[in-house]
Amino acid sequence: MDNAFGQPQNVVVLGGSSDIARAIVRKLCAARANTVVLAGRNQELLDAAASEARDYGATSTATVLFDAEDVNDAARVVDECLERVDGPVDLVIVAVGLLGHQSAMEDDATASARMMNVNLTWPVAALARLRARLVVQGRGRILVISSVAAVRVRRTQYLYGGAKAGLDRLAQGVADSLEGTGVTLQLLRPGFVRSKMTTGQKEIPFTTGVNEVADNALRGLASGERVIWSPPILRYVFFALRHLPAPLWRRLADR
Amino acid sequence: MTRQRLTGWGRTSASLSSVISPRNEDEVAAALSGEVIARGLGRSYGDAAQLAGGVVLDNAELGGVSAISADGLVTVGAGVSLEDLLALSIPQGWFVPVTPGTRQVSIGGMIGADVHGKNHHREGSIGAHVTEMRLVTPIGAMTLSPTHEPALFWATMGAMGLTGVLTSVTLRMIRIETDQVLVDTDRFGDLDAVMAEMSRGDDAYRYSVAWVDCMTRGSHMGRAILTRGDHATASQVDDAHLKAPRAARLRVPLDAPSGLLNPFSIRAFNELWFRSAPRHERDEAQSLATFFHPLDGVGDWNRLYGRRGFVQYQFCVPDAAGETVVEAISRLSSSRVPSFLAVLKRFGAANPAPLSFPQPGWTLALDLPVGPEKLPGILDGLDELVLGAGGRVYLAKDARLAPATFAAMYPRLGEFLALKARVDPEGHLTSDLARRLHLGSPHG
Q: DSSP strand E in chain A: where?
């Protein structure tokens, strides 16, 4: 059960080996999380994340394997994760995502569709199942990891950014639909984060590490705000960037 | 059956439950086939009387008050409020043996929390004054008393409803001659002074409580107002009446903005409160309501804490660990986390209930608005301090303990769980609090 400070005891992570999710889980375990279920596509990485969760205080961990390209499997994955939690789940983190190298994919119909499946369709299917299950519970929280890339899509990452934009907007609709059900959904929009997903990429202003993102996520989970920005200043930066004329935006974003 | 959003008095950790109001024992029994918890007037601060996705039995329809016998015994429906009971009993010259700081509690809820009052140092908690109660459990309804099924009787005391649903309670009232209390008030400039006076002089008074300022640092840290007294006899007051207290006439109409109670406004309030108390006053006649239930004058005062609500942290520690109280107040005042006037009191002997909160020594209760980022960590630190001193935190106030800390604070938990398993073999009686603390719920 979540406590009065919004600190969860049971946590499920879809995309459990994501560096951002792992950093959040570490901090949740240091507070109150004792049961952690991690779902992902690589058993070895999941085992490492689970062992890390135990190091930080989790007393019970479990892993569930899935492939986010198989969009028909999402409901099964959600059900299996919730079964591994003994009782109601407090927090589900949706951290499934793939950045990839756009230049190799943008003219490839199959690769482009795969990017949509992994970053948008699978998470949307999972959200549908989660919504139904948590509403029956009468309580629970969902944290969807979006990105500032969803706020204004960059030419060099439009597959990733476009998919996140879809997820971001859809999740806000889900959040509205949850009003009065005891269940809440929040969005986390990190800026550029140093992680294995971005290894080799050029850093840009307001780049942060995963621990800073996790700190902001925990603060947001405690306050309950709908959209959590990391770092918080990006709320204002992207308000400006969103309204920039396209030629200017290209010059800024394509660098 | 519609679902309803429920929270405790602190207005944190909301969840949705299906709420039904059974009218008799049979209807209660019929509801015990699935996960369920009883709820009274919702004055527990945390998540004790709510059950996400389950059934909450509102006890409001379990009413009825018997005639009061010549020796003070009265049988009361579990859903009767203390306000309604007192409205009947005071005009007949009877008062409850123990009252919490509000009349807005149900009799069932008083047992569930094994409530204590300003007389705990002499007369114990409510459990000591109950002669019989009727409990509906998943294996059937039963009558419990200190001599019949004593283990289950005591296991129910302070168990936050987790052994069954109470339908009626018989308790022994005390005689009063007037509706007045004669009160001695003393102001102390620091915590050590008030604690020394309480240790020395409390035994001479039936009722005693101190209000402590937790916002002042330095040499006046923990300045306090100590009020002590006893019921006035007819000859002690000019015109002796037996009038029941009036219901609240003021009400907080809407949620205040979350920042209304901030360090500045709370400090200003504490200053005013402290300065308005007399330095030293003897035998001042106060009404029962003023003395026992000062906050009942304003309805829904919890809304002053805004959308995010507040937590109350109440702990007790043995006499020998009095410095724990000083350390707790010192940590709070130096952290500048806002906290309203704290309540300090001495506890007398504990009763045999495995989950009852009071134990001989000191208890301190603090109201803390949710919001400051360091507050969760400060309270986790206080948990450790209290546990290390052999103390514990009160379940009726809790909304944030960790399960392992709770288990360590209540060493007789195993005994309780064994008794609970006997009457609730399938674990139907549970609550958000029970799930959070792994209190006999199969779920975490």
A: 10-14, 35-40, 60-65, 91-94, 140-145, 183-190, 193-194, 208-209, 227-230
Option in A5, A10, A88 nearest B400 (CB): A5
Which residue among A10, A137, A224 sits closest to B444, beta carbon to beta carbon? A10
**What is the rounded distance in angstroms from the CA atom of residue A143 to the CA atom of residue B46?**
24
Active site residues of A: 160
Residues A17/A48, Cβ–Cβ less than 8 Å: yes
- In a domain, residue A5? The reply is no
A1 belongs to a structural domain: no
Rounded Cα–Cα distance for residues B434 and B36 (Å)? 11
Give the domain range for residue A196: 10-253
Residue of A1, A10, A225 for testing the chain B interface, max B β-carbons within 10 Å: A1
CB within 8 Å: B400 and A222: no
Q: Which residues, in sequence order, are bridge partners of residue B58?
A: B39
What is the ipTM, given to two decimal places?
0.91
pLDDT in tens, B366-379: 999 999 999 999 99
Q: Give chain A's domain count.
A: 1
Q: What is the pTM of this model?
A: 0.94
Comparing B54 with B264, the larger pLDDT belongs to B54
- Examine residue A38 and state whether it is found in any structural domain, yes or no: yes
Mean pLDDT of chain B: 94
Please give the backbone phi and psi of residue A51, each rounded to the nearest 5 degrees, phi first: -65, -35
In contact, A226 and A178? CB cutoff 8 Å? no
Q: Which amino acid is at B122?
A: R
Choosing among B55, B393, B398, B435, which should be mutated to test the A contact, i.e. which has the most A CBs within 10 A?
B435
Would you say A77 and A14 are in contact if contact means Cβ atoms under 8 Å apart?
yes
CATH classification at residue A239: 3.40.50.720
Q: Which two tokens stand for residue B312?
A: 């109350």
Judge whether A172 and A113 are in contact, CB under 8 Å.
no
Q: Nearest residue on chain A to B373, judged by CA atoms?
A: A219
- What is the average per-residue pLDDT within B143-153? 98
A32 CB neighbours in chain B (<8 A) are 402
Nearest Cα of chain A lies from the Cα of B313 at a distance, in angstroms, of 12
- B402 vs A32, A140, A219: nearest CB: A32
CA distance B165 to A244: 63
Chain A CB within 8 Å of residue B444 CB: yes
A132/B382 Cα distance (integer angstroms): 39
Question: Could you tell me the domains of chain B?
Answer: 63-176 (3.30.465.10), 180-400 (3.30.70.2520)
Instruction: Give me B386's structure tokens.
Output: 């209290």
Query: Is the residue at A29 inside a domain?
Result: yes
pLDDT for A206:
87
pLDDT value, residue B236: 94
